[in-house]
Design a protein that fits this description.
5-stranded parallel sheet; 13 helices; globular
Length: about 400
């Protein structure tokens, strides 16, 4: 049988394991290695919220998990785009059930991970925690990991690196020009948090099924509901010279400086938020390759997705589905004998389809991020009027379909 190792148990890693089981690989032949301790892995909850695109929902549907996400998250088929002065700039689609199969969703960051983990438990997928990878050895016939305690993995037929933007698999094995592809701080920092229903009154109701995005001279601010109960997520992006983490009050001070005079509920959110988390935005240049003969990357380890796209989680899910599809297509997963060439062909096809698609999304996200940097009064005025004209008279929702409405493959 095919022995497959997965390094990293985030969205891409867990989803890949689930699709492998769906494709008929026995759970005894799937080895998921996670660097966090068992306590941290199962009990530590990711902070803040996220957007899950309708394309991500379509992938969850292939796992039979979309309805659970609908029950626990907040359906959000539209975005309202405002200027910090309160002037409405535009309204545009985030995908709709009638046209895309699902609408985009807003939810706590912990929610989709929990959904994937619950399914993994049902399918008896196990996770080896506390397994920090030190090195990768690849031969003609197998690939093997060495861990921090000097223990080694079994000889694996295929290794999947799903270990995020700081990927050990990418840095020590897949990409040789290490320094060129080390994540670099972009000069932007994102902050955000969750607020319980009732603490802050948003300018829209849960049943409005929308999200407000506000832009101004000193950054960006977003807010939405995240579940049927009406809990709230908020997030901001602004320029910061240092990526070093800050305490809650320092973050609050920076937020007041950036958004303290903005309209609507923003000053109240900043004042009443008790839990804030910070994530510096890093970028990685497009990699020359996503794979070797027996090692392949998925998710942020292959393509560091800036948060400005709202596509990080969804693209990791797509990677998982496509990778397993091509492994199945090239008869790697059926239990019969296969050659190294078959593996290489599957990985080449996966990269051929996914790499240009994802890199286009990353490029667009970096453009959006640049628009969140500080602007002069004239630049802010110009952007406000150009955005209003563009989104109301030129932009078409269908332009987003290549991302939000992908033609996803089906597993056998």
């Amino acid at each position: 049988m095919t022995k497959i190792g997965i390094v990293g148990a985030g969205a891409g890693g867990i989803a890949t394991a689930l699709f492998l089981v769906k494709a008929g690989v026995p759970v005894s032949d799937i080895f998921v290695y996670e660097s966090r301790s068992e306590t941290d892995f199962y009990e530590e909850k990711p902070k803040g919220g996220l957007g899950l695109g309708c394309n991500g929902m379509l992938v969850l549907d292939r796992l039979g998990l979309a309805e659970i996400a609908l029950e626990r998250g907040h359906e959000c088929p539209s975005f309202q785009f405002y200027h910090s002065s309160g002037e409405k700039l535009a309204n545009f689609s985030n995908g709709r059930r009638e046209t895309h199969g699902f609408a985009g969703m807003m939810m706590a960051r912990a929610t989709p991970i929990k959904i994937l983990l619950e399914e993994a438990k049902k399918l008896s997928v196990s996770f080896q925690c506390g397994r920090k990878v030190i090195s990768v050895e690849e031969t003609e016939d197998w690939v093997q990991l060495t861990f921090e305690d000097n223990s080694k993995s079994d000889h694996l037929d295929l290794l999947i690196g799903a270990d995020g933007i700081w990927s050990k698999i990418r840095r020590t094995h897949v990409v040789k020009e290490t320094e060129k592809y080390v994540p670099k701080y972009s000069g932007l920092v994102g902050v955000g948090g969750l607020i319980k229903k009732g603490l802050v009154e948003l300018p829209f109701k849960v049943e409005d099924q929308t999200c407000w995005m506000i832009t101004g001279a000193t950054g960006f601010f977003g807010m939405s509901h995240i579940n049927p109960e009406g809990d709230i997520q908020w997030w901001s992006t602004y320029e910061n010279p240092s990526p070093q983490p800050a305490d809650t009050e320092s973050i609050r001070k920076s937020l007041i400086e950036a958004h303290g005079n903005w309209f609507s509920s923003i000053p109240e959110i900043i004042e009443k938020a008790t839990e804030m988390f910070q994530w510096p935005v890093y970028s990685v240049p497009p990699l020359p390759a996503w794979h070797t003969s027996r090692v392949v990357l998925v998710g942020d380890s292959a393509h560091a997705m800036p948060p400005h796209s709202g596509q990080g989680f969804s693209q990791a899910l797509e990677d998982a589905l496509y990778l397993v599809y091509f492994l199945q297509k090239h008869n790697i997963l059926g239990g019969s004998a296969f050659s190294k060439q078959q593996i290489e062909d599957a990985l080449k096809e996966y990269q051929y389809i996914r790499k240009p698609h994802v890199e286009a999304i990353v490029k667009d996200a970096e453009r959006r991020g640049a628009e969140k940097r500080n602007k002069s009064r004239f630049e802010d005025w110009f952007k406000k009027h150009m955005s209003k004209f563009f989104f109301n008279y030129i932009f078409k929702d269908s332009w987003l379909d290549p991302v939000l409405k992908p033609q996803l493959p089906y597993l056998k």
